[in-house]
Automatic annotation (TrEMBL):
Record region (Disordered): 30-55
Keywords assigned: Signal
Transmembrane segments: none
Pfam families hit by this protein: DUF885 (PF05960)
Biased composition (Basic and acidic residues): 32-43
Protein name: DUF885 domain-containing protein
Highest taxon of the lineage: Bacteria
UniProt cross-references to InterPro entries, sorted A to Z: DUF885
Amino acid sequence: MKLSTSLRVLGAGSVLATALVISGCDSSNNGTKEKAAKEKVTQEKPALQKNASQDLSSKNEVAQLQDLTKIYQKATQALFKKRALSATLYGLSEDEVGQYYADQMEDYSPENEAALRTELLALTEKIAGFANQSKSSSAIENQLVMASLTRYFGGHPDFSIGYIDVWMGLSPFIVNQINGPLIDIPRYMQSDQKISNEKDAMDYIERLGKFDSLIGSIQNKLSADVKKNWIAPKVNLQGAVRYFDSFLQPKPEEHPLVNAFVEKLALLDGVPEEKKQKLIQLAKQKVADVVYPAYQKISEQTKSLMDKARDESGIWAQPNGDKYYQDAIRQLGDSDRSAEEIHQIGLDEVARVTKEMDAILKSQGYDKGSVGERVIAVTEEPRFLYADSDEGRKELLNDLNGYIAEITEKMADLFKTKPPYQVEVRAFPVEIQDGAPGGQYTPPSVDGSKPGIYWINLRDMKAVPKFSLKSLTYHEANPGHHWQVALNMAQTELPFLRRIAPYNAYVEGWALYSEQVAAEMGLYENDPFGDLGRLQAELFRAVRLVVDTGLHHKRWTREQAIAYMAEQTGSAESDVVAEIERYMAWPGQALGYKLGMLKILELRAHAKKALGEKFDLAEFHDLVLLGGAVPMVVLERKVKDWIAGKK
């Protein structure tokens, strides 16, 4: 079987190997028996030859699958050799990466980025073009999805700008306010780098000492992109500078990179206290002498670009930006629709959800003003706000843990398979909260030593009213991101890249679908304001379709997008500004939520109609989740095969 790079879905089948047992003849048999035996052998000879051919075919199939497995492993190593900190995030072994990486730093120079993309795209062609004779549905699906994944991670071959992100593939701006190595790497070191012995501690210090080379490579990549007239919108660069200022604000010896190191060392047994103090001094020295000067350099370079930075807010203003956006729609929205069609879907969904919110508000006595205005009024009521204090933040985190415990207990009837990994709630670090989203999820380590983390942004306590937090929790934790990602990672029979597959429409679509399932499970009974919060969150995602296509296709300004989102959703201004600036930095990413959810609901409705009483929602959820994140065209085929099998 040969797959095209357009990811054509092929039929699935199975190969059955048949073994024949031949009985030998006893020498005491008489002539009649011998003659009968000879005739039997003559009659069975074609069958034996056919079986031998099948046996050879089976051996060839096994050999082919072994060859494909080696290519999949090569793809994993190609990515993580260049992304050592992401390997740390996932807790990969030295064998899985193909080298010792715990003391390695990443290199984003134009040459290194080009080498990574070239290798991944070559592997895409190799996987897609592999003449796999297997009729196994799992083997076919692996080949199909792995060809898609290497293309996803490799980025569009016509665009050498930006950088490859292990979560979203090609990210257009290596310096911005919300993601990228300058933001992600310090966070991974603080949260995810293990220190189990003195060697681990030295590896951490070694990485601190390589921040100058890391940031030097980012400076080179930034300069190379600017030379191609590819430069981020001014507000995104201004946000990056604010992040640098916050990063550099503490004294070096009090920086979170040092504090995290001290905390990890304190838990380490077997290392004398005197030695620990020497290690701490080394870490402080590296932060002061290497990390801080490097960040000051990239901050100065970013400031120097302000006069060149674009005033336009959309990717359309970049060279060949329309083509870039259409590819982002395919990769992050998993859709072949045009931006114009998606914009209209967004408007239609905004109208539908707004009508449902209006009904709830009127039932609670709020009948004056637009839906957005009424939601703002509800949000500002003291009964729905946590105190803007340490105590208020602690109370909020306790409530989130309570919501997770409550829904996890009630999920048993609708979700058969439970993930083996735990989830933990944490507030975003203060130094990154200004540019961070309202909520975010990071996966557990493969070995389970680190839980999945549901991050929540507590920069503005008015942006997290009590009635909005159930839906956010169901989205980020259970049955949303954590449940899906943790189950995906537990599928050890899949190629590793499939276990962490970040297909945006599938992943975000599932999380948004989870919010609706929670409502169907009765989590909002006698809680009209909680249901209002759920609908506000869904409206937020519908509005995203409108503003993302507005910014990047219809050439809306930042201010135009902010005004539309604020008016429609009634969200806190701080949230709306951060969201719009996020979409400016991540063209297309905001499309995956609603497009993915709509597709999952469409497939569920189709299965329910086709199967009638045979439809089992828990089985459907296992079907969607246990094969891991996949392109929607693959999920659709799986659902159709499931329906056919149950019929």
